[in-house]
Amino acid sequence: MATNIAPWIARLAGLLLAVSLPVQAHHSFRSQYDADQPVTFTGIVTKVDWMNPHVYFYIDVEDEETGALENWGFEMGPPHMLQQRGWKRNSMQIGDEVEVHGTRARDGSTTANARRVTLTSTGQILGAASSEGQTITSGEQSAN
Fold first, then answer.
1. How far apart are alpha carbons 118 and 7 in whole angstroms?
2. Does residue 114 lie within any of the structural domains?
3. Can the peptide bond before residue 53 be classed as cis, meaning omega within 30 degrees of 0?
4. Which terminus of the chain is more solvent-facing, meaning fewer CB atoms within 10 Å of its CB: N or C?
């Protein structure tokens, strides 16, 4: 009888492990980003990764002290949330200049969670579906 139970216990353990991995893989906003470290940058888009679970984009930003270019990565919400706010896969293109408001990563790296993205050529504000809970709907025009 004990030998018949062992395969079932192994299957149950495997199932529990498989179910718990996605929960552990997703991070909370607070664990990764510091709401007390807001950032605002204007830069040129170098890369856009439009995929689940989050869309990421990267911009080159000039360091104010050294003048050196730094490549910053910004996390946004998942593609379906961005699409609900008016984004399309091609709303932001490599070479576009954007202004980004966000929250810096706790580890001090050149990564942040985007709250608002403005296309500087048109003034169009694109909502970033931020995990921080501060999102802007699409189609708004900046006051500048």
1. 56
2. yes
3. yes
4. N
**Number of domains making up the chain:** 1
Q: Which residues neighbour 80 within 8 Å (Cβ) at sequence distance 6 or greater? A: none
Tens of pLDDT along 16-50? Answer: 545 444 444 445 666 688 889 999 999 999 999 99
Q: What does the pLDDT read at residue 14?
A: 57
Q: DSSP E strands: which ranges in 91-136?
A: 97-105, 111-119, 124-127
AA identity, residue 93: Q
Instruction: Using DSSP, state whether 8 is helix, strand or coil.
Output: helix
User: How many angstroms separate the first and last alpha carbons of the chain?
Assistant: 76
pTM of the model: 0.71
Q: Name the residue range of residue 72's domain.
A: 29-141
CA distances, 101 to each of 7, 96, 123, 126, 128 (Å): 53, 16, 14, 11, 10
